[in-house]
Amino acid sequence: MSFLTISHLKKSFGATTVVHDFNLNIEKGEFVSFLGPSGCGKTTVLRMVAGFETPTSGKISIGGQDVVNLKPNQRNIGMVFQAYALFPNMTVAQNVAFGLKVAKKPQAEIDATVHEMLSLIKLDHLGDRYPYQLSGGQQQRVALARALATKPQVLLLDEPLSALDAKIRVSLREEIRAIQRKLGITTIFVTHDQEEALSISDRIVVMYEGKAEQVGAPFEIYNQPSSRFVASFVGTLNTLDATVRDAAAGIIAIDGKDVMIGQKITNHKVGDKISLAVRPEAVSLGEATDKRETTLDGKINSVHFLGSVIRIRASLGENTVSFDTFNNPSAPPPSPGENVKVSLAAKDMLLLGQ
Ligand code: ATP
Q1: Could you tell me the pTM of the whole model?
Q2: Which segments constitute the ABC transporter domain (predicted)?
C-alpha cells in the first residue's frame, strides 16, 4: 500500500463540485507536483490532505491511517503557503520553534531542532532577525524550516515560490528539492508553472477541472500527453491544421504537402480536417536531413535572440510554428520577412482528438 492514498475524493461548495473523483497514490519519499491552471482544484485537494477542508466524500490515508476525521494538527503535516505567513512579531528562531513550543517539547530539544533547521536552510546567522528584515526568498526558507521543525510525515507546499522573482524562484526550488531529498520527506508541491513542475518532480499530476487528467513522470507527461489539454498545458506546443490524405497509411497534407506521420489515423476519412500537435523540438530551420522529416516553405515572422538560443516564429502557409535554434557565431540568424525552409519531424507529431 502506498504511503499517502487519496481515493474517490470529491469536494463541492454548495451546488458546485470543484473536485471530482480524484485518485492518487504517493510513495514514501516521493516529490509529487499538482500542476494545472488557476481554479482547477489544486489547492482544494491540498487543503483536504492538510485537514483545512472536509471532503464531501472520499478517503485520504497517510501511513495506513485514515485521516479524514483528524484535525490538521493531528495529521503530522507541515505546510508552506504562497504568502510567507511568518509571525511578524517573532524572530526567525521563534518562528521555527513555534510548532515545537505548541507541542510542549523540552527547551533543549527545541534549541537543538531550531539550530538544525536553520543550518538546513543556511540561515544560522539570522536567527535573531524579524521577518521584515529578511528578503522574500529568506522568508520562504524560514517558512520551510518552520514547517519541517516538527518532523512531519508529509510536506505540503502551496505555490511557495510564486511571490518571488524569477532568479530566486529557480534557486529556491532547487534548494527545496535538495532538502526534500536529504530528509526523504513525502511532498506535494502545488504550482501552475509547468517548467517548475517538470524540473523538480518525481511525478506530476496534471489537473483540469477538478480531475487528475494525467499522472506520470515529467518525461512521460511531456512526451506522451494523454489529452489535448495536457499536450497544450505542459510545454510549448504548436498546433497545426492539416487534411487527411490516406488514413490507413497515416498520410496527411500540411499546407498542400504530403506528410507521413507514422501512425494510423482512426476516426477520420480522406479530406477530413485534423489538428496536429508538434513540439518545438520537432521543428528545425533548413532542408530536411532525415527521410522521416518533411521540408515545407516558410516565412519568418519574428526572431528573438536569447543568447545561446534563438526563438523563431514562422508561417507555414496558414499555420504558424514556434521553435528554437542554437546560436551559431559564424552565421547571423534569419530576419523577419525572410523566406526559409522549415523541416518537421513527422514521427514526433501527435494527432489531437483521436
Ligand atoms: P489557483 O492556482 O488559482 O490557486 P487552484 O487550482 O488551486 O487555483 P482552488 O483554489 O482549489 O484552485 O479552487 C478550485 C475552485 O473551487 C475554484 O473555482 C474556486 O473558486 C472554488 N473554491 C475554492 N474554495 C472555495 C470556497 N471556500 N467556497 C466556494 N468556492 C471555493
Answers
A1: 0.85
A2: 4-234
What are the tens digits of pLDDT across the range 129-152?
999 999 999 999 999 999 999 999
Q: Using CA positions, which residue lies closest to atom 26 of ligand 1? A: 13
Q: pLDDT tens-digit profile of 205-216?
A: 999 999 999 999
Which of ligand 1's atoms lies nearest the C-alpha of 53? 27
Q: Return the pLDDT at 32.
A: 98
- CATH class as words, domain 4-233: alpha beta
Q: How many angstroms is it from 106 CA to the middle of ligand 1?
A: 40
Residue 337, C-beta contacts closer than 8 angstroms, at least 6 positions apart: 299, 300
Centre of ligand 1 to C-alpha 252, Å, is 42
Ligand 1 pocket residues where CB is under 6 Å: 13, 18, 36, 38-44, 192
d(CA 111, CA 94): 10
State which of 12, 43, 191 you would mutate to test the pocket of ligand 1, scoring each by most atoms of that ligand within 8 A of its C-beta: 43
Write down the domain spans for the chain.
Answer: 4-233, 238-352
Phi, psi dihedrals of residue 68, rounded to the nearest 5°: -55, -35
State the Cα–Cα distance between residues 19 and 22, nearest whole angstrom. Answer: 7
DSSP 103-155: TT--HHHHHHHHHHHHHHTT-GGGTT--GGGS-HHHHHHHHHHHHHHT--SEE
Nearest CA to ligand 1 atom 30: 13
Main-chain dihedrals φ then ψ at residue 286, nearest 5 degrees? 105, 175
314 Cα to the center of ligand 1, angstroms: 38
Amino acid at 40: C
Ligand 1 center to residue 210 CA distance, Å? 10
Alpha-carbon gap, residue 328 to 333, rounded angstroms:
8
- Closest ligand 1 atom to Cα of 47: 11
Residue 193's identity, in one-letter code, is: D
Q: Tell me what ipTM this predicted complex has.
A: 0.93
Buried b (16+ CB within 10 A) or exposed e, 54-75: ebeebebbbeeeebeeeeeeeb
Q: How many Å lie between the centroid of ligand 1 and the Cα of residue 45?
A: 10
How far is the centre of ligand 1, averaged over its atoms, from the C-alpha of 354 (Å)? 31
